[in-house]
From TrEMBL:
The keyword Iron does not apply. It is an enzyme of class 3 (hydrolase). This is protein-glutamate methylesterase. Its EC number is 3.1.1.61. It catalyses: [protein]-L-glutamate 5-O-methyl ester + H2O = L-glutamyl-[protein] + methanol + H(+). Keywords: Chemotaxis, Cytoplasm, Hydrolase, Phosphoprotein.
């Protein structure tokens, strides 16, 4: 379903999607009220949602659209989603599966059409990336009773999962949290600001040689891998730009591998929603070092590729919802 107040945009988007022969546009409406009314009786797989619309805007309506759609993935298609835009981070934090910058009328052809088809196809194909998850039991999770660091990796759907997770961790929780989220560098400053608000604690974009301090959130920059190293007086961040097998930049694998080497059995790794397999090699290193790995469950994931690959490899102690993972983190002993 397409939700856009511009009749031209609705028409062009519908033609683009249906011309491929792979997609069917169930409806194209001009406002949120019409979209919610349609979803009361009809089911769709994907909703293309504009942000700037008269009446109720797309961001305000997003939670209601997600609830009414019964599991459909929402792709925000809006001119406000340019590089570094606050609207992009807000949409992803509210549960949008992905975003796409809508070009001006007359510039819809060519590259935009290719990107639109690819994004929709990947979101529709996403559930098949992994299978067979069993939801974990929070009380029965075999996770170490104590840890000195939490390392979180995420991609598509991860920002919303992070927001749910961090809400369950009290602001005075002192274990440092390292985060690698697949995002371009231009988004990172605003992303860190949003995480600081959600978590109620300082959040910084990693810089080379930055010290890892208690109670801090540190996020990987968009153009470098976040690694950690042991120093004579604690631990520090080292950034690297090495190519990795999965092709991601930043990548979860080098972060987790370095955490395993630095913290060993006192490391807790979390792999949240994301496409592909980034994090699976790093999770193996965590387990081999005696640390613990928990992944997001399939039911709550936008894409169960990354967490599913870790789970199906037998590296995860449990598959939980983001809120349960947050409660699990908060329930552990704190360093003295």
């Amino acid at each position: 379903m397409i939700v856009d107040d511009s009749v031209v945009a609705r028409t062009v988007l519908a033609r683009m999607l249906e011309s491929s022969g792979k997609f069917v546009v169930a409806n194209a409406v001009g406002n949120v009220q019409a979209a919610l009314g349609f979803l009361e009786t009809q089911q769709v797989d994907i909703v293309l949602l504009d942000i700037e619309m008269p009446g109720v805007d797309g961001l305000t309506a997003l939670p209601d659209v997600l609830a009414a759609s019964g599991g459909a993935k929402v792709l925000i298609v809006s001119s406000t989603c340019d590089d570094g835009a606050a609207a992009t981070i807000q949409a992803l934090a509210l549960g949008a599966a992905d975003t796409l910058v809508k070009p001006g009328i007359g510039a819809f052809a060519g590259k935009f059409s290719e990107v639109l088809h690819e994004k929709v196809k990947r979101l529709l194909d996403a559930p098949a990336e992994a299978s067979g998850a069993m939801r974990g039991n929070l009380a029965a999770c075999k996770v170490a009773d104590d840890f000195d660091v939490v390392a979180i990796g995420a991609s598509t759907g991860g920002i919303h999962a992070l927001s749910q997770l961090l809400r369950e961790v009290p602001p005075d929780f002192q274990v440092p949290i390292l985060i690698t989220q697949h995002l371009p560098g231009s988004f990172m400053s605003y992303f860190a600001t949003q995480l600081a608000v959600l978590a109620g604690r300082p959040c910084e974009v990693a810089t080379d040689c930055m010290r890892i301090r208690p109670g801090r959130l540190i996020v990987a920059p968009g153009d470098a891998h976040l690694r950690c190293v042991r120093m004579s007086d604690g631990t520090a961040i080292r950034l690297s730009h090495d190519r990795v097998a999965n092709g991601c930049m930043p990548s979860v694998d080098p972060m987790l591998a370095s955490v395993a080497q630095t913290y060993g059995a006192r490391a807790l790794a979390i792999v949240l929603s994301g496409m592909g397999r980034d994090g699976s090699e790093g999770a193996r290193a965590i387990v081999q070092a005696g640390g613990s790995v928990v992944v997001q469950d399939r039911e709550s994931s936008v894409v169960w590729g990354m967490p599913g690959s870790v789970f199906n490899a037998g590296q995860a102690s449990a598959a939980l919802s983001p809120s349960d993972i947050g409660r699990l983190i908060a329930s552990r002993k704190r360093p003295s």
